[in-house]
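tool=predict chain=A
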Amino acid sequence: MLFVISGPSGAGKTSIIRELFKNIPGLAFSVSATTRKQREGETQGKDYYFLTLQEFKDKMDRGEFVEYEEVFGNYYGTLKSEVEKYLNGSKHLIFDIDVNGALSIKKIYPEAVTVFIDVPVEELIKRLKSRNTESAEEIEKRASRIKLEIDKKPKFDQVVDNTDGIEKAVNEIKEIINKYTKG
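tool=predict ok
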């Protein structure tokens, strides 16, 4: 199965996914490619495939992406090879991608289960500021995109609220995964 976890920046996608891996055996992480700078603590090939702009565009030209998008001046995408190595395997693939990418995955793989992580706008902005990983200008850009992403929430298979602590959201997503993997 393919499980696509998505939502606006600051919704807690990455933190939720980390917890899911601690609790559910048989999961694999779909490592996305990006042209953005590697952040402290991130590992090449584990968190992202960090590519130069030219490398990314070459892969685009060769049709190597399932989906890709330019977000805030950087490209992000899911490599076909990343999905294909798990499609017929024994592990369930988890994606941590933006809203448009999630909807693109759903078009190509209709069996994929899309989960929107929902958080009120004010809380999202507060979280972005507290991360201290983006400049004030970058936070403003991300904030302007939040409404566009929230408007696409009805297109998702499942919506999980992550306002009242990550544990509740993780438990809801565990139930969703169990529902689809255990029949």
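The radius of gyration is 16 Å. The beta strands are 2-6, 27-29, 32-34, 48-50, 65-71, 74-79, 92-96, 113-118, 158-161.
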